[in-house]
Amino acid sequence: MNKTQIASDTISDTDTRSLFHEQIRQGIPAILPEPKTYDTAINHAPKRKEILSPDEKKLALRNALRYFPADQHAILAKEFLAELETYGRIYMYRFRPDYKIFARPISEYPGKCEQAKAIMLMIQNNLDYAVAQHPHELITYGGNGAVFQNWAQYLLVMKYLSEMTEEQTLVMYSGHPMGLFPSHAEAPRVVVTNGMVIPNYSKPDDWEKFNALGVSQYGQMTAGSYMYIGPQGIVHGTTITVLNGGRKISKNGEGLAGKLFVTSGLGGMSGAQPKAGNIAGCITVCAEVNPKAVQTRHSQGWVDEVLTDLDKLTVRVQQAKAQKETVSIAYQGNIVDVWEKFDTENIYIDLGSDQTSLHNPWAGGYYPVGISLEEANTMMADKPELFKEKIQETLRRHAAAINKHTAKGTYFFDYGNAFLLEASRAGADVFAPNKIDFKYSSYVQDIMGPMCFDYGFGPFRWVCASGKPEDLAKTDAIACAVLEEMSKTAPVEIQQQMQDNIQWIKGAQENKLVVGSQARILYADAEGRINIARAFNEAIEKGEIGYIILGRDHHDVSGTDSPYRETSNIYDGSRFTADMAIQNVIGDSFRGATWVSIHNGGGVGWGEVINGGFGMVLDGTKAASRRLESMLFWDVNNGIARRSWARNDEAIFAIKRAMETQPLLKVTIPTIVDDAILDF
């Protein structure tokens, strides 16, 4: 390449960046852009059911048009009505940006505040085509986990962030940017709420109506929190779950070689299952009805093989069992057919679960057996009551097939996707003899709660703001060194957790987990998170790596009150309360988080959970060091204190240990009551 070519390329790159900056800063364009062609190659959200009355449709249009000047209303009103009637929502497709959306290096974003640029990076990562489930509908994962409700909101938010100073905070109401408010440098740069409706208006149809009106949205967990890092975010948790599930059924510690794990779902979160199965060393069969989701995971290398024929699947699994292979197989079809076929063919299933989006059963989260995807989507929109009947029939069949396998010895666990909850509502045989509890434990009750959350271990994640793979490699090495040093003196009670995460981080590079941003996740307790974050901040100060964005999944020790998942192993009667999640987000906001979020509905369904998260930018300064020490300690120990008060032995151990390390921590410890005292 000659000097002229180099200069030309440099000018081209500069012009492209300048245009990108200009487009970000303009927000909603003053001149209407041309309508966008509906791209059938993209994985789109299914049509939402008809739920608004004629007057409510007019209200939805008024709500949508308020983003635009009056002289555009005549054109946009007809267009938005067509979207509402065709898709069940107003997405404002016309305003989808022409530039490619992905996590650029932080230096490529316009702005006055590095923290704001980091948030722009994370928003664009959530909407990256390689990351998002339905990118044109601004849905990241879970079928309805949205970053924004429409493209006008996206444009406004990016504009506000490009203008923000460290003396302002952006206030977000369910995807809508209320605006920049005067604030101060120690305050969060963004405060996010999603779906914060009055409790009596928190049924699934309430979400459908409020979302169609454009006044509320389902932020899932990390979608509306700008903290999704692709399926890697759950690969780690799923790997730990499968490993520990294997330990529960293990005889003499033989491991998972040749053992069969059957589950379903290859979406944004569930797509992690086959990769996790490979890392754990078992045979994984994962069913998925959506061919685009299957193709995506296969093309990304997250699933090894794809089969569409049950007879061929049976033969392949028998072969894998005989040879004790580590292999992941996607079956493109309905999971119920797999469970029933394996029962007929007497194929023994060692581990079983389900991770379809049953928090969203009536809008594409779960599909009826015996009906094509296209037929089901049409029925969902046009005959919602019939669709609901078919879903509930399928759930009853699904549960019945699982019961046949568990009678043979299969260990089945609910994966926190509301499978047992919705199956019970459908009248399936999933209750224990007392008719109160489910016959199968949730994975938190049986595995993650007592083994991880009660000890303070949960998902700690980071994103390299430079976008450089070499920075990610350096942070992997830093984190590994910190954990190895800590493991030398760690109590025996948490040695297994330490070793699992050391093994994980050592294999992170070779497992090619990055989709989208240069991100990583591992499980650590408060001490581990603080020590790793401190080491990152010191490396930034020395110029060894660029800025780091810290975060976590809401699926953690302290951020989420979810009675059938995160807090399902709380037995003092408080699992239906949400004090912990609310206290968590309030505490994080004044202890140094860069942004905070609180949501209704993430993971298990609208009205079923309150969950919160945070983001924190490390820039190598002493201020960042002070913030990370304060916030990360609270972010974990708030939850341990609650779990300790619920009389969970592991949490009592963990909070006593925390008080030994931090003299200012004074937590009330429960007195354990002798059962004989209550034997009246």
Automatic annotation (TrEMBL):
Entry's Gene Ontology BP terms: L-histidine catabolic process to glutamate and formamide; L-histidine catabolic process to glutamate and formate
Cofactor field: NAD(+)
Reactions catalysed according to its record: 4-imidazolone-5-propanoate = trans-urocanate + H2O
Protein name from the UniProt record: Urocanate hydratase
Primary gene name: hutU
InterPro entries xref list: Urocanase, Urocanase-like, Urocanase_C, Urocanase_central_sf, Urocanase_CS, Urocanase_N, Urocanase_Rossmann-like, Urocanase_sf
Keyword list, A-Z: Cytoplasm, Histidine metabolism, Lyase, NAD
Location within or outside the cell: Cytoplasm
Any one Gene Ontology molecular-function term assigned to this protein's record: urocanate hydratase activity
Organism lineage: Bacteria, Pseudomonadati, Bacteroidota, Flavobacteriia, Flavobacteriales
List of residues binding NAD(+): G142, G143, Q220, E288, Y415, G603
Family per similarity comment: Belongs to the urocanase family.
Any single Gene Ontology cellular-component annotation: cytoplasm
SUPFAM superfamilies per UniProt: Urocanase
The Urocanase C-terminal domain, residue ranges: 453-656
Pathway: Amino-acid degradation; L-histidine degradation into L-glutamate; N-formimidoyl-L-glutamate from L-histidine: step 2/3
